[in-house]
Amino acid sequence: MTQKTPPDIVIGRLPIYLRALNALADQKQEVTSSYELGERLGISSAQIRKDLSQFGDFGKQGTGYHISYLIEQIRHILHLNRKWDVAIIGAGHVGQALANYGGFVDHGFVIRAIFDVDPRKVGQQINGITVQHQDKMGEEVRRQGIKLAMLATPASSAQEVADTLIEAGVRAILNYAPITLAVPDEVKVQSLDPVTKLQHMTYYLEP
Amino acid sequence: MTQKTPPDIVIGRLPIYLRALNALADQKQEVTSSYELGERLGISSAQIRKDLSQFGDFGKQGTGYHISYLIEQIRHILHLNRKWDVAIIGAGHVGQALANYGGFVDHGFVIRAIFDVDPRKVGQQINGITVQHQDKMGEEVRRQGIKLAMLATPASSAQEVADTLIEAGVRAILNYAPITLAVPDEVKVQSLDPVTKLQHMTYYLEP
């Protein structure tokens, strides 16, 4: 493994490679190539080889990649050989959809707590988890040692909530609120605001 | 305006700039600078000036940007000076959260149709829209001239649904299904799979 940290954009492609490799493994395929992966993902095979080579030597010229081995290696690189506890903040439509999504636990992300400010939501059960009041959030996140949070509050409160989460030890935020969060360098944010994603695409459509 | 198409990564930052400018305008601010925008967004002021300069000359050295003018220009560039009709495919938790999200119509994205294969969901109303059977999707999308779709089906059917949508005229897909869609060059896809976004961030966390 090289010492230099690979660019973030390359890190971001590893989960995409992993997803494609898992799909091939589900079909009982044992070996693949950068060409086959590239065809499935719309990425050039040269790019895939270059990306993977930044983390190690995972395939042999001409024989391709052993899928189960490459899956194991990427999971190791991404720190996925463990479970990760996650908190959801906001029990509105988005928070509820997240709490009910089965894909998280399948991939080792376990929802441990849900918070909201609405007294009508506090105490309700969503997918087996009791919604707690947001006043308890910092204390509860710290107590459970939760490092990952999914932020599904209105934009108006998102920064304040993020500050409290970070103070309590959260180091990675999946942000559904339509606002750019200001966070310290050591905290990672991925934003999933659907409006900005739609606006990105309308550029390419005929007006 | 220059003739060369700016890189996609730059296009993708325009909606982020627009969101920040709208927030400033909401606070009745009239003028801003690349420095102020950069501070809010965690992007260097030089990057912001370089990005915007690819689309035109929107500010004067030393006097900054007039916010309302820059908003108008970015909206024009992104083709946002019109309403866009959108279809949602999949009326599960994610599809319902999307259908109930008020942020779309505020930004000119109007949900016109929701489709699902589940007979128990077909005929139900979600936020005033009647869920239709997915068998009607191609015909209905074509009839309404819908170019944008939000795909919230299981991964197993997402590619087939995308193919039908594209055949019916859809040119931009917001993809919530955990699969990389294969689409023709003229069709844009933005993927919002939360699992891959979480996996991107766990790379940076202590294992």
From the N-terminal CA to the C-terminal CA of chain A, the straight-line distance is: 48 Å
Mean pLDDT of chain A: 95
Helical coverage of chain A, percent range: 40-55%
The geometry of chain A reads as globular
Number of strand segments of chain A: 10
Question: Could you characterize the architecture of this molecule?
Answer:
The structure is a homodimer of 207-residue chains. Chain A is of the alpha/beta class. In chain A, 43% of the residues lie in helices and 19% in strands. Chain A has nine helices and ten strands. In chain A, the strands form two sheets. Chain A has a seven-stranded mixed beta sheet with strand order 6-7-5-4-8-9-10. In chain A, strands 1-3-2 form a three-stranded antiparallel beta sheet. The longest helix of chain A is centred in the N-terminal third of the chain and has 19 residues, at 8-26.
Could you give a quick summary of the protein structure above?
The first copy, chain A, has 207 residues and is of the alpha/beta class. Chain A has helices at 8-26, 34-41, 45-53, 67-77, 93-100, 103-106, 137-144, 155-167, 194-202, and strands at 31-32, 59-60, 64-66, 84-89, 109-116, 125-126, 129-133, 148-151, 172-175, 188-191. In chain A, helix 1 runs antiparallel to helix 4 (67-77) and helix 2 (34-41) packs across helix 3.
